[in-house]
């Protein structure tokens, strides 16, 4: 003999087998859904203000300028990490600066003296890495 709980499950299963597509759609819509992950790069609405600032040449970030290191390869986190290690080992002081990003290039300006430290055309930039 089966218990009442088993019988209820059997009835529910048999009714779901014959449910209409509309009822199935309604049932699915009432279930809690896990939020789908959307990477930041795929969220264009979050970048519109930044894109406009870049086009106008008004996009800037406060930075600590470490220096300049020539690299063998043009891409990859490992290349950036090695360059940062070389700079830190050199013992040179970092400079508080402002990084200006525009459609034609990157410029680094000393925060205190306002001297131009770097003026790099955008065509020469092949890779950017997040802070490590």
TrEMBL record:
Pfam families reported for this sequence: PID
Compositional bias per record (Basic residues), positions renumbered to this chain: 26-35
Keywords: Developmental protein, Phosphoprotein
Biased composition (Basic and acidic residues): 14-25
Domain PID: 59-129
Domain of life: Eukaryota
Coiled coil regions, renumbered to chain: none
PROSITE patterns: PID
Region entry Disordered, spans: 1-49
Protein name: PID domain-containing protein
Annotated source species: Pagothenia borchgrevinki (Bald rockcod)
Taxonomic path: Eukaryota, Metazoa, Chordata, Craniata, Vertebrata
